[in-house]
Amino acid sequence: MSLTPHGLLVVDKPRGVTSHDVVARLRRLLGTRRVGHAGTLDPAAEGVLVVAVGAATRLIERVQSGQKQYLAHVVLGAESDSGDVEGTLARTSTIVPDRSAVLAVLAGMTGVVRQVPPAHSAIKVGGEALYHRARRGEQVDVPARTVSITGLSLLSYDYPDALIQVDCGGGVYVRSIARDLGHALGCGAYLHYLLRTRVGRFDLAYARPLSELERGFSSDTWPLVALHPDAVLRDDDALVLGEASLESWYHGRPVPMPGGTAVTTTHVRAYDRDGNWLGMATTDPGRGLWQPRSVIGR
Q1: On the CB side of 28, how many CA atoms lie within 13 Å of its CA?
Q2: Among residues 12, 21, 42, 274, which one is catalytic?
Q3: Cα–Cα distance, 193 to 74 (Å, whole number)
Q4: How far apart are CA 104 and CA 199, in angstroms?
Q5: 78-107 residue pLDDT tens
Q6: How far apart (Å, rounded) are the C-alpha atoms in residues 30 and 289?
Q7: How many CA atoms lie within 13 A of 247 on its CB side?
Q8: 158 classed as catalytic
Q9: How many contiguous H segments (helices) and E segments (strands) does the chain have?
Q10: What are the DSSP calls for 132-170, one per residue?
Q11: What's the pTM value of the predicted model, to 2 decimals?
């Protein structure tokens, strides 16, 4: 089937499938290579994976920049060489931290912080993914990076099991949060289960199981399962271009703002007078212009 579709699919990724696997299967299903995901989920993790198709791939960066939310089951008293249940586990301590100690450590881990990703990660150092080197038993110095963790809520705690809600920006490794929690408590910890419940405005209520998409997909069902690309931009102001501005828009040239235009967002989503989506632009109120950033062709 070749639909040459454009839009967003919010997939409820199952455990045991890589994000790349999801993209590859959807490429075959849709008959197009213009498919990409907005933020990797580890194979052992489940939940929201936003997949962009066709012209929507131009908005992947906007999706990735949205806040993420996870439910993490962390097990204390043991560590894993991969940071999660997929690795080799070893019991490290008989210390039993109380709830107040766990809460205190979590509070100290929020904010803009430096985080060291797991050695078993897809980050490339010297052109090679870290997990390849880790699997060969090599010692890997993983560089720390700055990330934003806006909230760590302890939903339940019955040692050794802690259920934590994680609210964060992009680039955060929840496996590293589990590892660092265990180190701070002196007992070790690893991530046993991870569910991503939200990416930006897209939560599990939007998500459809991958098996459902594969089983019942057709050109007729595409409008029922896909979101319009501009769903990413719904919090932005809307710009409607007249015929005189369309030529400039399609050539990426700035479009003047009508006098008295009130702009409340940095980005605007653009349409023609027939309601066709044209892409997005950034505002330059000082010069009275909209600068096209993602332009959808004629």
Answers
A1: 7
A2: 42
A3: 7
A4: 27
A5: 999 888 988 888 888 889 999 999 999 999
A6: 38
A7: 2
A8: no
A9: 8, 19
A10: HHHHTT----PPPEEEEEEEEEEEEEETTEEEEEEEE-T
A11: 0.88
Contacts of 21 (CB under 8 A, 6+ apart): none
Please report which confidence band the pLDDT of residue 110 belongs to, taking 50, 70 and 90 as the band edges: very high
Identify the CA nearest to 75 among candidates 85, 65, 87, 63.
85
Residue whose structure tokens are 């097990």: 75
3-state helix, strand, coil in the chain (%, to 5): 25, 35, 40
- Please enumerate in sequence order all residues whose Cβ is within 8 A of that of 125, keeping only pairs 6 or more positions apart, or say none: 133, 140, 142, 143
Residues listed for the chain? 298
Residue ranges of domains in the chain, CATH in brackets:
7-66+201-231 (3.30.2350.10), 68-199 (3.30.2350.10), 236-295 (2.30.130.10)
Site of tokens 């950034």: 282
Paired sense of beta strands 237-241 and 255-256, if any: unpaired
Q: What one-letter code names the amino acid at 207?
A: A
Query: Predicted confidence band at 1 (pLDDT cuts at 50, 70, 90)?
Result: very low
Q: Helix or strand or coil: residue 29?
A: helix
Distance of CA 172 to the CA centre of its chain: 10
Tokens, residue 278: 């044209």
Say how far apart CA 8 and CA 123 lie, in whole Å.
26
d(CA 293, CA 57): 13
Location of structure tokens 């399609």 = 250
Cis peptide before 160 (omega within 30 of 0): yes
The structure tokens listed for 209 are 């199981």
SS3 (DSSP) at 130:
helix
Distance of alpha carbon 87 from alpha carbon 15, whole angstroms: 15
Quickly list H helices, 42-110: 60-64, 99-108
